[in-house]
Write a structure and sequence with these properties.
about 240 residues; alpha/beta; Rossmann fold; 2 domains; 7-stranded mixed sheet; globular
Length: about 240
């Protein structure tokens, strides 16, 4: 799972026993060398979608080290913002952006405290959903809506809910069960769960809020064939 530059099992255990924010602060120096970092093969079509239209302001939600933001900044003129609660991840993102010669405005921010009001043409994410509990998802969608300009797009990767005969279903459910047990025994909690924002649930929440939704399948023929690229557009005219 990890290359030689990645964290050891002991380091991962220490991170898992910390809070969400502290755990990612600890993981940050080696995050780029873990499977938790969204692979470039997944990020590339997402970035292509972001820059497929002229953009002035782009927001990368729960950006981590800026896998999306740094690539968008390399291909588009304008203001690219990345927000995350982990100061360690943001610091690594700043180092990588500097090394790559791109300009990203990294900001420490809880996404549920976003102050933005129709400030972005595009909001994108590849790592936010596992950290959003189901009862907070409608609030999250409302904040995305509020932060987008009319005609703006919310672009992200998800997948259809796997069937119970799919081994991926049981792997994800097993991980989630372990996290529930960990959080019941240890405080503060570590919020990270899978299958929480499936294509079906995401589509229902977005339609309910008023987004126009398009779903693409750019990952066919790859190891990520289950992935779907969702492009949800806020209408130009309020419904």
């Amino acid at each position: 799972m990890f290359d030689p530059k990645g964290p050891t099992l002991l380091e991962l255990a220490r991170q898992a026993l910390s809070s969400t924010t502290k755990g990612y602060d600890m993981l940050a120096p080696k995050f780029e060398h873990t499977p938790f970092r969204t692979p470039d093969a997944l990020v590339a079509p997402l970035v292509d979608a972001v820059v497929s239209e002229p953009v002035t302001d782009v927001l990368d939600l729960a950006c981590g080290t800026g896998a999306i933001a740094r690539r968008v900044a390399a291909r588009a003129d304008g203001h690219v913002v990345g927000i995350d609660v982990s100061t360690g991840m943001l610091e690594e993102g700043r180092k990588l952006a500097k090394n790559e010669g791109v300009d990203v405005d990294f900001q420490e921010m809880d996404l549920f405290k976003m102050p933005f009001d129709e400030e972005f043409d595009v909001i994108a994410t590849s790592g936010a959903f596992g950290h959003i509990l189901q009862h907070d998802q409608k609030k999250f969608i409302d904040l995305v809506w509020k932060s987008l300009r009319p005609g703006g797009r919310f672009i992200f990767i998800t997948g259809p809910m796997p069937t119970i005969s799919d081994p991926a279903y049981w792997v994800a459910r097993g991980f989630n069960a372990a996290m529930h047990v960990r959080n019941a025994l240890i405080d503060p909690p570590f919020i990270m769960f899978y299958l929480t924002f499936s294509l079906e649930r995401a589509s229902a929440l977005l339609w309910e809020r008023g987004f126009e939704i398009r779903t693409d399948e750019p990952y066919r023929g790859t190891p990520y064939a289950r992935g779907r690229l969702v492009i949800a557009r806020k209408p130009e005219v309020k419904p």
